[in-house]
Automatic annotation (TrEMBL):
Gene3D superfamilies: Metalloenzyme, LuxS/M16 peptidase-like. GO terms for molecular function: metal ion binding; metalloendopeptidase activity. Belongs to the peptidase M16 family. Residues 260-431, 748-882 form the Peptidase M16 C-terminal domain. The lineage of its organism: Bacteria, Pseudomonadati, Bacteroidota, Chitinophagia, Chitinophagales. This is Insulinase family protein.
Length: 977
C-alpha cells in the first residue's frame, strides 16, 4: 500500500535517541551541480533540478553493484481526457514499443503505414454503424500486418535483458505513470542512453495487438472481486473527483474507440521534463551520474503542465451501503475519505489505522483476530495527493453474517473513539516503525519507491516533512488521536458487502478479429546494435565460500549456522526442521493453534502485546517438508524475545474454546478456497502433476479436522524442540556469546525424538494427453500445461536457466510472450518454464500458462502447442538470454541470513559449494543446439495434463475433448475435503 503509511514504514529514524534532530533543507554544490538535501535523511537523497526542469533524485547505497530506477511521470487516470479514459495506461504500454530509431527495421517505410493506421482509427472512433466499423477494423488489421513487417517487437526489453536488467515493468495509477528497472551498476551509461531515446519520440506501433492485451487486462479485472470493491469504494467516496469517476484501465466504450492522436496529445502535454523525474538508488557516484543524466536528457524542453484541479468533494453525511456480487468468498469493506497528503489529518489517519491494526497489538488484532471472532480483519490507508482512503476490511467465520461482522467492526471503532487503549501503544507503533525502517533501508527498491511517491504527491518539495514523520507521530497524544477519531469516524463511510452471486451488469470486451503480426524477433536495429556493442566495465561475480562466509557451532546436539551482522542492530534467528506436513498432517494446525493460546503466565493477547512492545516478532510455519520457527527484531531485545518464545512453546496451555474457534475459521477458509479461482487452479496443477493423491489434497478431511483434540496439538508443541533441528542466527552477537546465551533457555534432549516418516508423492508419467477441468463462473479461461521430466541433475541447471530466459520465463523479451501476446494478441499473461526441484530426489517439471478470453480458448492452446512442439530460433534473443543470466550472477550478492539459506538449499541438492559458480561457468559455453536438444527431449511432442479453469457456459465438453481425455473434477476431489 502506497502513501503515508509506507512513508512510516520506510523513512523513520531512530526516534529514542534523536527526537530533537531537525530535518531541514540544505543546499550544496559538487562537480558544478547544485543540489538540495535534507539533514539527517537516512537515504542521503540528493535533489537536483536540471535547467529544463527535470528532477533527478539520487540515493547512493553501496551494498551491491546494482541500481534500482524509477522514472515517474505525474500523470495518470486523473488526467485522462473524459472522452478517452484509460489513455494514460495505453501510453504506458506503448512506451515499450520503441522510437523512430529502435523497434524499426526501416522507419521510412514503416511511417506511411502507421500514418494510415492513425487515420483509420480516427474513422473507427467516429463511426457508429456496426458493419462499417467492422470494415474499418478489417482494414486496420490488414495495414497493421503490413506495418509490422518493418517493426521489431520488444527491442526495448532485449536491450534491457542484454545489459542485465531485472524487473522491467511499468504501472499506471490515478496520479502517476512510473517506469521501473533494476540494472547492474556498470550498465548505467547504456541504460541512460536507452531511456533518453525511449522518451524522445515514442512510436505507437504494433498498436492493435497491444490494445488487445489491454482488453485482456480489462477482462481480468471483471473476474476479480477485489478490483470490483476498489472501484466501487472510489466511485462512491469520490462522486466528483476523478479518483472515483475515471478508472485507470478505462471504460469498455473508450477501450473500443481509441484515438492515437489523443494519445500523442497526452504524451506531448504531460511527458515533459518539468513533470518527470529520474530516481536512482544504488551503487554509483552522484557527481558523475548527474552529469551523465544532464548530458543525455538536455534535449527535453519544458512546457507548462495543466494541473488537475477538481472541485472539492462535499462531506458524506450518511452511510452509503451497497452490495457487490461475484463468485469469490464473502467479505466487507468500510471506506472513509481522508484528507490531503502531508496534512496533519492524514498522519492522524495512519496512526488510527495502526492502533486498529498493526498485525500484532492493534484493537482488531487483539480483540477480533486473536480472539477469533471473525475470519480476518485489518485496516490501512491508501493516500493520494488530494485525498486518501481509509479502509477497514473483514471476512466472516463459519456461521457468521456480514451484518454481524459489521457490528463487531463498529464496536472496535467505538473503543478507539472512547480511548479504551493504552497510550503506550503509540510508542510501540513508533518503535516498530523504527524496526521496519532499518529493514527497508537495506533494499534499493524500497528507497526508490518511497522517493517516487513523494515526487508524485508534491514533487519532492516536502521530503523534509516525509523524513520527519516519525517525530511528528511521536508527538501525537492519545487525546489528540481520540479527538480525531470522534470527528473522523461517523456515518460518513461507504460500506460494501461483497456477497456471493452473479454480477448482472458485467459486459466483457469482445474479441476483435486479429491476424497475427510479424515480430521480427531475430532482427535488430542499428540503435540496438550500437547499445549492445558499447563496452561495459567488468563486474566480477562473488561466490560464497561456506567455510569462510558462515560459521558452524553446536548447542547441545543441535548444529548452529551463524553469520554476524556488522551493519545494524537487527537480528534474525530460526529453528529449522527437515520435517513438515508430509511427516505429520497435524503439525501445520498445531503451529496455527500456537498463535491463539497462552501459557500459565501470559494470555495469547499478552504475548502479542509483549512481542510488539519489544519490536520483535515470531512466526511458526510448517511447509511440506520444512518447518521454521523464526524470531526477528531489535538485537537489544533478543534475550527477552527468545525467552518469551521459549516460554510460549514449552508452556503453552490447551484452550478448547480457542481450538473450536480455530476449526470454525479453518472450515470457513477451506470453503472460501473453493470459491477462489487461483486456489482452484493450484489444486488442478497438483492433480495434473501427481494424480489423485497429491500434495495439495494431502490434508485433514472434514471428519479429521472436527475430531482434532487440543491435547494432541499441545503435545506436538511441547515436544517440538525434541525433534532434530538446526539453529540459524544472523545478528551482532559473537557466535560463542550467542550460543551460550541461547543455551540458557533453549534446552535440548540428549538424543532426538525420531522424525516421523514422510509420505512420498510420485509424479505422474503421462502417455497421452489428459484434460482436467474445473468449472468457475468467469469471463476468461485459464489454461495450464503440466509435464513431468527426468530426475534432478545439477549439471543441467545451467542449460535449464538459459532455456527459461530464452523461451518463456525471461519476461517480455521471451519467445512465449512475444508470440502469444505480442504477435497473436491471445493473452495478457502467459509464461512457460522448466521448473528445477528443491531436492536431488525430485524431478524436473514443466509448466506453461495462458490466461485468455474464453472465446480465444482454441487459439490460445494452438498458439502454445506450436511453441511446445517447435522451438523458434532467434539468435539475438538467445544471446540476450545468456547475457542476462551471466550478468545476474555477476551482480548478485548473497549476504546476511541469505548465506545460511543458500547453504541449506544447496545441501538439499547434494551440493556442498555455491552452485551458482557451476551454473555460471557452464552457461558461457551453452549453444542454441543445447536448448533445442533440451526442448526436443523434454518438451516437444510430449503428453501433457491440460488444467483448465473456466465457465462451462463458455468452454464446452466438446471444446475440451479436442485435446485429450476429459476429466471434470469436483471441488471435493481437488481439495480432499
Amino acid at each position: 500500500m502506497k502513501g503515508v503509511k509506507l512513508w512510516l514504514l520506510l523513512l523513520l529514524v531512530g526516534f529514542a535517541a534523536t527526537a530533537q534532530k531537525k530535518y531541514e533543507w540544505k543546499q550544496a554544490t559538487s562537480n558544478g551541480y547544485t543540489y538540495r538535501y535534507v539533514t539527517n535523511d537516512p537515504m542521503a537523497a540528493r535533489y537536483y533540478t536540471l535547467s529544463n526542469g527535470l528532477t533527478v533524485i539520487l540515493s547512493p547505497n553501496k551494498k551491491e553493484p546494482r541500481i534500482s530506477v524509477r522514472i515517474p511521470v505525474r500523470a495518470g487516470s486523473n488526467t485522462d481526457p473524459r472522452e478517452h479514459t484509460g489513455l494514460a495506461h495505453y501510453l504506458e504500454h506503448m512506451l515499450f514499443k520503441g522510437t523512430d530509431k529502435f523497434g524499426t527495421l526501416d522507419w521510412a517505410k514503416e511511417k506511411p503505414l502507421l500514418d494510415k493506421i492513425d487515420q483509420l482509427y480516427e474513422q473507427y472512433n467516429s463511426t457508429k454503424d456496426t458493419e462499417k466499423r467492422k470494415e474499418i477494423y478489417k482494414e486496420i488489421d490488414k495495414i497493421s500486418g503490413e506495418a509490422a513487417k518493418f517493426a521489431i517487437a520488444n527491442e526495448y526489453d532485449k536491450m534491457m535483458a542484454a545489459m542485465g536488467a531485472q524487473g522491467t515493468n511499468a504501472h499506471t495509477w490515478v496520479e502517476e505513470t512510473v517506469y521501473e528497472e533494476d540494472i547492474p551498476a556498470n550498465a548505467l551509461d547504456k541504460f541512460l542512453d536507452v531511456q533518453a531515446e525511449r522518451f524522445r519520440n515514442p512510436i505507437l506501433r504494433i498498436f492493435h495487438t497491444e490494445l488487445e492485451a489491454v482488453y485482456e487486462e480489462k477482462n481480468r479485472t471483471l473476474d476479480e472481486d477485489g478490483w470490483k470493491l476498489q472501484e466501487a469504494s472510489h466511485y462512491y467516496l469520490f462522486p466528483t473527483h476523478n479518483y472515483g469517476q475515471q478508472t485507470t484501465i478505462g471504460t469498455i466504450e473508450h477501450l473500443k474507440n481509441p484515438s492515437l492522436n489523443a494519445i500523442r496529445d497526452y504524451y506531448r502535454k504531460f511527458y515533459v521534463p518539468n513533470n518527470m523525474a529520474i530516481v536512482l538508488a544504488g551503487d554509483f557516484d552522484p557527481d558523475k551520474v548527474i552529469a551523465m543524466i544532464d548530458a543525455k536528457f538536455k534535449y527535453m524542453k519544458a512546457n507548462p503542465v495543466p494541473e488537475y484541479k477538481p472541485a472539492p468533494e462535499k462531506p458524506i453525511t450518511q452511510a452509503i451501503v451497497k452490495d457487490i456480487y461475484g463468485p469469490s468468498a464473502e467479505s466487507l469493506q468500510f471506506s472513509f475519505r481522508t484528507s490531503a497528503a502531508d496534512s496533519k489529518e492524514a498522519l492522524l489517519a495512519v496512526l488510527a489505522a495502526s492502533v486498529l491494526s498493526n498485525g500484532k497489538a492493534g484493537l482488531l488484532d487483539l480483540n477480533l483476530n486473536k480472539q477469533q471472532k471473525v475470519l480476518r480483519s485489518g485496516a490501512g490507508v491508501r493516500q493520494y495527493k488530494d485525498y486518501g482512503v481509509f479502509n477497514i476490511s473483514a471476512a466472516p467465520k463459519q456461521g457468521q453474517t456480514l451484518e454481524e461482522v459489521k457490528d463487531l467492526i463498529m464496536g472496535q471503532l467505538d473503543i478507539l473513539k472512547k480511548g479504551n487503549f493504552d497510550e503506550s501503544l503509540i510508542k510501540a507503533i513508533v518503535a516498530n516503525f523504527k524496526l521496519a525502517q532499518l529493514q527497508g533501508l537495506e533494499n534499493n527498491g524500497n528507497r526508490v519507491e518511497e522517493i517516487t511517491d513523494g515526487f508524485i504527491k508534491h514533487k519532492g518539495t516536502k521530503w523534509n516533512e516525509d523524513v520527519a514523520v516519525l517525530d511528528d507521530m511521536s508527538k501525537i497524544t492519545k487525546q489528540e488521536l481520540v479527538t480525531f477519531a470522534n470527528n473522523f469516524f461517523k456515518d460518513n463511510y461507504v460500506l460494501l458487502y461483497k456477497r456471493k452471486g452473479e454480477s448482472g451488469n458485467v459486459v466483457k470486451v469482445e474479441k476483435p478479429p486479429i491476424t497475427a503480426v510479424e515480430t521480427n524477433a531475430d532482427k535488430q536495429s542499428p540503435f540496438l546494435k550500437a547499445i549492445n556493442d558499447k563496452p561495459l566495465s567488468a563486474v566480477q561475480p562473488v561466490w560464497l565460500d561456506y567455510n569462510k562466509d558462515m560459521q558452524k557451532g553446536k548447542l547441545g546436539n543441535a548444529d548452529v549456522l551463524y553469520v554476524q551482522n556488522k551493519e545494524n542492530s537487527l537480528f534474525r534467528m530460526y529453528y529449522y526442521y527437515d520435517m513438515g506436513a508430509w511427516n505429520n498432517k497435524l503439525l501445520p494446525l498445531a503451529l496455527q493453534y500456537l498463535q491463539f493460546i497462552g501459557t500459565d503466565k501470559y494470555s495469547a493477547e499478552d504475548i502479542s502485546k509483549e512481542f510488539y512492545n519489544l519490536a520483535c516478532s515470531f512466526n511458526a510455519n510448517a511447509g511440506n517438508d520444512v518447518t521454521t520457527i523464526s524470531l526477528n527484531g531489535l538485537e537489544e531485545n533478543f534475550d527477552k524475545a527468545v525467552a518469551l518464545l521459549e516460554q510460549l512453546v514449552r508452556n503453552c496451555k490447551a484452550d478448547d474454546a480457542a481450538l473450536a474457534s480455530l476449526i470454525n475459521r479453518l472450515e470457513r477458509t477451506r470453503a472460501n478456497n473453493k470459491l477462489n479461482k487461483n486456489v482452484i487452479m493450484n489444486a488442478l496443477r497438483n492433480y495434473g502433476a501427481y494424480g489423485e493423491k497429491n500434495p495439495f489434497n494431502y490434508t485433514l478431511s472434514d471428519a479429521e479436522l472436527k475430531s482434532v483434540k487440543a491435547a494432541d496439538l499441545i503435545n506436538i508443541l511441547h515436544n517440538l524442540f525434541n525433534y532434530s533441528h538446526r539453529i540459524l542466527y544472523y545478528g551482532s552477537k559473537p557466535l560463542n556469546e550467542f550460543s551460550a546465551g541461547l543455551a540458557k533457555v533453549h534446552t535440548l534432549p540428549t538424543s532426538w525424538t525420531p522424525t516421523p516418516a514422510a509420505v512420498v508423492f510420485e509424479r505422474t508419467k503421462l502417455t497421452k494427453n489428459q484434460v482436467l477441468f474445473a468449472d468457475y463462473e468467469m469471463k476468461q479461461a485459464e489454461i495450464t500445461w503440466i509435464g513431468n521430466l527426468d530426475k534432478y541433475d545439477a549439471s543441467k541447471e545451467a542449460v535449464v536457466n538459459v532455456f527459461n530466459n530464452y523461451f518463456g520465463g525471461g519476461g517480455m523479451g521471451a519467445i512465449v510472450f512475444q508470440t502469444i501476446r505480442e504477435s497473436k494478441a491471445l493473452a495478457y499473461s502467459t509464461f512457460a518454464v522448466l521448473q528445477t526441484p528443491n531436492k536431488k530426489e525430485d524431478d524436473f517439471s514443466f509448466v506453461a500458462y495462458v490466461g485468455s478470453q474464453a472465446d480465444k480458448f482454441h487459439e490460445a492452446i494452438a498458439g502454445m502447442n506450436e511453441l511446445l512442439n517447435t522451438l523458434p530460433e532467434a539468435t539475438q534473443t538467445f544471446e540476450n538470454a545468456k547475457k542476462s543470466l551471466l550478468k545476474d550472477y555477476e551482480t548478485e550478492r548473497i549476504t546476511k541470513d541469505g548465506i545460511l539459506f543458500s547453504y541449506l538449499n544447496n545441501e538439499k541438492k547434494g551440493i556442498s559449494t555455491d552452485l551458482r559458480k557451476q551454473i555460471y561457468d557452464k552457461a558461457t559455453g551453452i549453444s542454441f543446439t543445447d536448448l533445442k536438444q533440451l526442448h526436443q527431449s523434454g518438451i516437444a511432442n510430449k503428453a501433457y495434463a491440460y488444467c483448465v479453469v473456466a465457465s462451462e457456459k463458455s468452454v464446452k465438453q466438446e471444446d475440451l475433448e479436442k485435446y485429450g481425455e476429459v476429466k471434470k473434477l469436483s471441488l471435493t476431489q481437488l481439495f480432499g475435503y
